[in-house]
Amino acid sequence: MRRRFGIGDLVAWLLAAALVVWAVAPLGLDLGGFGKAGAAGANRPGSIVDTFKTNDQVLKEVPNTDFAQAVKSLPVRQWRQTKKYNRHEFGQRWADEDHNGCDTRNDILSRDMKNVVYRPNTRNCVVLSGQLQDPYTGKVINFVRGQHSSEAVQIDHVVALADAWASGADGWDPARRQKFANDPLNLLAVDGPANQAKSAYAANKWLPPDVDYRCAYVARQVRIKQVWGLSVTADEQRTMALTASECPSQQLPPGPTLATAK
């Protein structure tokens, strides 16, 4: 007669599993690095290999680099009630904040793509086509402006507007929010589906599929939050600190922010 698997067996199994985790923890084995990074990128820069260390330990052990020190300088927020995020709080979409006569979307397309072709008689403002080396996926995308084709390349807010809202932008005046929404430092031309998958997630919830770009991506988020005085969650700071440790040669993107995109 087969023995039934009871509650006592389950408790014993859980205790055994806990002992295994306790035993390997000091060895720093990568038991938590298969989430965002995936097994294929486990030992590559930017793979974000997590550990069983506390946040304080992770922050204490980061290298003495500008990237790592910037991560440590970011204010960590606790949960707080904010007014519900709405895109209109960030003003006009693709406003010409740098006053160069072109809207921000076309500025970023022009900056980030190669072999750009402009619509005639638009003073090189309206991009008709171009080729993007997508930073998020590593794919090459041939962009053609059109009703059903333009969305292949989208402009991503590296620090999403909803994330910025929860990180302190809810307390800004409308003019500052519009400047942030159109800041070239916070904008990248990227693969449309990858941008949709990212949604409004912070670094602890989403990283680019291309592992080789993760160092630069997180460094850019850190720089943006540092420049604009935005906060992070404890989990977000942990991911940023782990990235800084995995990417000791990664530089913060240069300023100043609000520069002309072209």
UniProtKB/TrEMBL annotation:
Keyword Nucleotide-binding among record annotations: no
Record keyword Metal-binding present: no
Molecular function terms, GO-annotated: endonuclease activity
Stretches assigned to the GmrSD restriction endonucleases C-terminal domain: 103-241
One Pfam family it belongs to: GmrSD_C
Keywords: Endonuclease, Hydrolase, Nuclease
Full protein name: HNH endonuclease
